[in-house]
Amino acid sequence: MTSDTVAAAAEALGRGELVVIPTETVYGLGADSTDAMAVARIFEAKGRPRFNPLIAHVTDARAAAAVIRMDERAQALASAFWPGPLTLVAPALPDCAVSVLARAGLDTVAVRVPDHPLALALLERFGRPVAAPSANRSGRPSPTTLADALAEVGGSVSAALDGGPCRVGLESTVVSITDAGVALLRPGGVTREALQAVVGSLIEVPDDAIRSPGRLALHYAPQAPVRLEADRTRNGEAFLAFGTAPRDQTGVWNLSPTGDLREAAANLFAYLRAADRTGPVGIAVAPIPDIGLGEAINDRLRRAAGYVG
Ligand code: TXA
Ligand code: MG
């Protein structure tokens, strides 16, 4: 399957079918969030071992306010970062239409407004929140192109929109908003520093208090073992470089020759996949500075390497 129109994709959602949706972060596998059967198809298509909560995608902060309680902090974060790579987890409203399955039984819902014209056009046309995890089989790297998405879940979808390569390339930052404060549940496209500039300090939450599969070890893993903080390759390894690297050498993918973390984030999953496709004995990855977007990049790399986060 190649690519369909927004109208055809909205109709497929209305029939309870699955659709590949481009966003600025990664490609999503979308379904009508209010239809539990449709949501169940997402888990089935991804081969998810258990029902983890999904993000409900909406057109704007107003639509979000029909799903979750948008207090002052949520409003401030929404005006600063929506549309964009930020997901807000907040208490579900009593008449929230998002199905309990999409929420995995929790009394909170994760909501975001994607910054992509095709995603927004689809949400507008469909008119209901769309549940969409990344469009990969469970435990695999997130797809950042339509071709990668179709290679993962193409057999399960009845429509797919081609939005080109994803601009951000990393999933959204997930924050929870509770009486105790605002907590960073998953680093992502919006940096910790940018969040702090809007809400002040963030609170820490214990790992096991969060049902966030994005925090599981071996999430985002390619087939080949991944070795981090490598300054050179060993025999038969592919190499993901960052900054200065040997030019024109086979088996080397440079995440950003100029050392730009935004460029590295955008290339990360596509290069992990490209390196993996060559069937190396392993994938060595250069050190990435742990500042700004580097926090999310290193988080995904540690999980790809199988370290417990
Ligand atoms: O950029 C993204 O966020 C992409 C695109 C498609 O929007 N989506 C994505 O979805 O990465 P997914 O399902 O792969 O990750 C959703 C994350 C998970 O870590 C999940 O545990 C967390 O959000 N989450 C969802 N609902 C939650 C809730 N009620 N409480 C805590 N965490 C929640
Ligand atoms: Mg995912």
Question: In a few lines, what is going on in this structure?
Answer:
The chain is α/β, with parallel strands linked by helices. It has helices at 6-14, 36-46, 61-64, 72-81, 117-126, 146-153, 192-199, 261-277, 294-304, and strands at residues 19-21, 28-32, 55-57, 86-91, 108-112, 130-131, 159-160, 173-178, 181-186, 226-227, 237-241, 252-254, 282-285. The chain is 28% helix and 17% strand.
List the main descriptive attributes of the protein structure presented here:
binds threonylcarbamoyladenylate, alpha/beta, 309 residues, DHBP synthase, 9-stranded mixed beta sheet, Rossmann fold, binds magnesium ion, 4-stranded parallel beta sheet
Q: How are the secondary structure elements laid out?
A:
Elements: H1 6-14, E1 19-21, E2 28-32, H2 36-46, E3 55-57, H3 61-64, H4 72-81, E4 86-91, E5 108-112, H5 117-126, E6 130-131, H6 146-153, E7 159-160, E8 173-178, E9 181-186, H7 192-199, E10 226-227, E11 237-241, E12 252-254, H8 261-277, E13 282-285, H9 294-304
Parallel strand pairs: 1-7, 3-5, 4-8, 10-13, 11-12, 11-13
Antiparallel strand pairs: 1-2, 2-6, 3-6, 4-5, 8-9
Bound molecules: threonylcarbamoyladenylate (TXA) and magnesium ion.
Threonylcarbamoyladenylate (TXA) binds next to strand 4, strand 5 and strand 9.
